[in-house]
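Give me structure tokens for this 280-residue protein.
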Amino acid sequence: MSSYTFETLLVDISASGVAHVEINRPKNLNAFSHQTWQDIGRCFAQFKSDGNVRCIVLSAAGRMFTAGLDLKDAMKRAAERQKEDGSRDVARKGYYQRLYLLEFQDALTQVETCDKPVISVVHGACIGIGVDLNVACDIRIASEDAYYCVKEVDIGMAADIGTLQRLPKVVGNDSWVRDICYTARNVPAKEAQAFGLVSNVYKTKDESMKAAFELAETIASKSPVAVVSTKHLLNYSRDHTVQEGLEYTALWNALAHNSKDMGVAMMASLQKQKATFPKL
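Here you go.
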């Protein structure tokens, strides 16, 4: 079994191929430090090429999912970057700030581009970067005490790690997206569900986790070739025209149809038995 050790994450992989990633900074309310987002990026990049992993559940320890950006850590990093900037002019300072932001963005994009489906479970607050992270996931589940907040305007900036790009595509309601992004108001789980940000809301975190793992086990039981192909093609088709999506799917499946999984699945169906598929 593959080894995953990170400073701010706990990772466990079951025999069935369900990985559980838990953000583990409860004393800091799971606020995202520089180390946290680096750990997220490295973890999900590793999952992409790990055949033992078929589906991922993402949750957080302690009182809440995340309080957002760790402002103390961010201010410390900003001071370090200012020192490094030294006598650089505005253009040069901006050049390196852009590289820093791109690195930050790329870390969370690893969740979206990891071909294994990711199910997030939110309890309590999910603020700022927590929303950035959640909209990069495939399926979002919440407990009744959960709430979401696109907080960035309250700290004098526009969200820049993915919310403004992914949230409109996730919910398909531009008016509501602008409402919550302009106001930085708290969005309770039931409202998030009504507008399509969340697929299911459960009474407690424990119930939410139970539902997430049951769903993950179901996904993990399917052909891994079929599942990773489906996620990859859904992401591609979302960002391209219908015709482009169809043409790309034909090209992708010209290869993917050569897997043994299709024969295994068809035979199991004919015999009314449960199919068992090899790892990816």
